Amino acid sequence: MLTTESRRCSFPMLDEMIYLNSAAEGLPPLEVREGLDQYFRDKQLGMAGRDPHFAALEETKALVAEFYGLTPTEIAICSCSSEAYNLAALALQLKAGDEVIINDLDFPAGATPWLLPDCPATVHVWRSRDGALRIDDLIPLLSPKTRFVNVSLVSFFNGFRLSLPEVVASVRKHSPSLLAVDVTQALGRIPLDLAGVDLVVSSTHKWILASHGGGLVGVPKAKAHDWHVSAGGWFNLEDAFGPERFVRAVTKPGAAGFAVGMPNFPAIYAIRAALNYIKSVGVVAIDQATRPLVQHCLRELTKFPVELLTPTDETAVAGIIAFRHPSAEAIAQHLRTKNIHLMSHAGRLRVAIHGYNTHADIETFLSELSNALNSL
């Protein structure tokens, strides 16, 4: 991933393009295809394939636990981050008078369950200033009524990187709230320190370079009984096939309650292969190799006639840089003609820089962005 030889071996598609859109869709290395092929071979065994399927699940949970700083019993895999948050909403059983805090840099999955008409809680929005979330603006929102706070470690919108220890300290000091952190835009890209977090959620098709169909949930054992998901199913139940199965259903506490049905084994095989690949390269090595590219790109973009949405404080960014321009789609189209791929949406352009990107990629992007702006 970090050398020309290894990049070409695992990502041959990069010989034909510059890919700067890992925040939307990560490029799976060929190792992930091999993982999916193995799933198919195991599935061809019929019921006998269940043994390798469930072995893959346990191996994948162990890998996720290693990345999260938890144990395998504190991990569950559901279908996506949206499912994880909706199950979290069931577990919270919010009532009138309860308060929830979200923020305006969050992805909808972590913000919208609390905004639905049937949610009785009062929602407060922690609003960003100059592209950053400031602790001084969070503290006044916290109170004895705060039941739940959700944040993203790295914002999908502009790449702002939260100071998580400060958030944890503030939430603990000023409220009894549970704290959830979405690490979708951080997992596989930067090292994680999730101490003090009560719920961890991540998608699987972005920076860890796996497939769709996975939601990686972490619940520390000490908080297991705070997350008792009230959902029907079977995999999440204490005794789904026992003699009282038509009398009562008792859900497992903690992370296990977030896995309500048959695991999505194709996604699990892909996640296992992807995390093993990321682990073989090393998240620290990825961050050390990629951080200078991000910093260089950010500094250079400050010289362009665009509205930078990402804070210029280099310690407050990870792998994403975002900016606005009235002709964003025309710029994106110009870049696509040069086989440079990034995200363009509603006037916002977003660059996502991963371990398979190079200094030459960034220089070419900046040069073609200049050409595009000059041609407008």
Characteristics:
Aspartate Aminotransferase, domain 1; alpha/beta; 376 residues; 36% helix; four-stranded antiparallel sheet; seven-stranded mixed sheet; Aspartate Aminotransferase, domain 2; 2 domains
Describe the structure.
The longest helix has 19 residues. The protein has two domains: 116 residues, Alpha-Beta Complex (Aspartate Aminotransferase, domain 1); 248 residues, Type I PLP-dependent aspartate aminotransferase-like (Major domain) (Aspartate Aminotransferase, domain 2), CATH 3.40.640. It is globular and about 70 Å long. The strands form three sheets. A seven-stranded mixed β-sheet has the order 2-8-7-6-5-3-4, with helices on both faces. Strands 9-10-13-12 form a four-stranded antiparallel β-sheet, covered by helices on one side. Strands 1-11 form a two-stranded parallel sheet. It has 376 residues and is α/β, with parallel strands linked by helices. It is built from eleven helices and 13 strands. Helices cover 36% and strands 14% of the residues. Strand 12 and strand 13 form a beta hairpin.
In short:
36% of the residues lie in helices and 14% in strands. The chain is α/β, with parallel strands linked by helices and 376 residues long. The strands form three sheets. The protein has a seven-stranded mixed beta sheet with strand order 2-8-7-6-5-3-4, with helices on both faces. Strands 9-10-13-12 form a four-stranded antiparallel beta sheet, covered by helices on one side.
